[in-house]
Amino acid sequence: MRRSATVVLLGGLLAVLLSAYTVYSRRVVRELRRDAGRYGAMYARVYQALTDPTEESGNTALLALSQQINELGVPVVITDTAGMPTAAVNLPFSAPLTDPRVRAYVESLDKQNAPVIEPGIGKVHFGDSVLITSLRFIPLLLASLLVLTGAAIVYVVRTRSRADRERVWAGMARESAHQLATPLSSLSGWIELLRDHADDEVSASAARHMEADLERLERVSHRFERIGRPPRRDKLDLGDLVVRVGAYFQARVPTLAHAVTLVASRANEPIVIEGDEVLLEWALEVLVKNGLDALAGRGGRLYLTTKRLDPDRVRVRVADDGPGVPRELRARIFEPGYSTKQSGWGIGLSLAKRIVEENHGGRLVLAPSEKGATFDIILQG
Asked: Please, which residues have CB within 8 angstroms of residue 347's CB and are 6 or more apart in sequence?
């Protein structure tokens, strides 16, 4: 939908640009033809005065020339040797020649064009016609529209290239999920066989943990199948989701040296929203792993909580008491490919942010905290 809107916008800009250029070009041609007609009429008047032997022909021709010059729309002010206006035509205001505004207007005319000195008359100060003024500003407007159109074209090309890459990655992810189906089925059979022949508590416990890991692998496989597809809108309880994710990681955190305590708690009331449970579980696990990585080698606590902020918003918080995120890195941690870990790919937090914001219309933020790092998932619900 965003690509369609961009294409429509680009087409609209191109249509506006072409329409404006066509209208402006036709207007310029029309004005030039009109001025050419006036120049021809002026020449005819001068030729008539030169060929007419009567005494009044010269005055008649001069009056006609004065009227045609007035029709050209060029502002003209004539001043004497002392700089006082003696005649004016096409002023943008009505005022006598003694008005101070006329002398001020002379200065603005001289900024447009250098005055012409006529012996015995004085200086002729003149400005630009309406056509010349449009020739100065309209091309700038058209150039701006052209630059804007070019920028839109570049954006469309880059967006389409990114969309093509995303389709390729989505296809690869779904193919990977398809390829995982066979070994997962085989592992399920081997675990079943191990559980049936387990003759001690250690083997039985190992079989149970392996079965839990297998179930998790199957969920991960299903996640890859969901990449590139529209997110589902099922009713789910965020409290159940938090408790389930917390229980999975509680059995796998360090308990001896540098022990990590993971506390997953739910609100007193059910918090039911509409969303894609598979994708939200993925985003939540990314945040939990991020916190566990921060506590690795030092120990500490990690909390998963849910809360209803108001009738329309709910929050899932993942907070740890580790070293936190340096201030200079806070603005970049959600950038794809950016990671502070040597072995990190830098896609976890950006993936979680995309799931929360693009797929569910919520927000994933790094909240201010006195110690450690606190991530808040804000959803509509």
From this structure: 336, 337
